[in-house]
Design goal:
The protein is mainly alpha-helical. It is 82% helix and 0% strand. The chain is built from 9 helices and no strands. It has helices at 2-18, 23-34, 37-65, 70-100, 102-107, 116-126, 130-142, 151-178, 184-207. The termini are far apart. 38% of the residues are buried.
Amino acid sequence: MSILLAFALAVLFSAIGVLPPGIVNMTVANYSVKKTLKKAKKFINGAILVVFLQSVLAFTFAIYLESHPKIMQNLKVVGSVVFVVLTVFFLGKGVQSHIQSKDEVVKGSKKSKLKPFYHGIVISGLNVFPIPYYAFVSLYLSTFIDDFFTNLVGLFFVLGTTLGTFLIFLSYAYLFRKIKSNVTFFIKNINFIIAFITALIACFTLYNL
């Protein structure tokens, strides 16, 4: 019972956490719209591999977070710095895209130096926020699942978070692919959209430090 409950709730909480537009979601949508669904899926596979490892790390951290609150503070600082850097990076890419030509942006972006799978690993790896989020979720679930911090239950928790995230990413890929004819603004301004998202996250975390 504990295994099924942990798995189901992990799927639910991960889906809720990933559902709002974020850097990984929007990059999935970018791949789906400007490139191909196949490449978007490869990107998702790379991102999901990182999510799995982050979930394992988060579950391990959850055991110590109550007695070591400064861990969360340090993660917030690291995350803020990362998102400030990403904001500058994507603003630069957005300006560069507009300078090159609008037609080129509509037809497609330049070929990435990284293959989609490895690109997914890099972008997802830069997003450190799943670690504190899943650590908090772990602590919350442990309050009413007595044997939550056991290896078996922990494994299914990690599998649940991975599955929930995968389903949301896949939904983004299919949804944006389906309505691509109506997302010209998105296609032209994807880098600015991502930069805006990362800037908001950076400001929010810096404010709460």
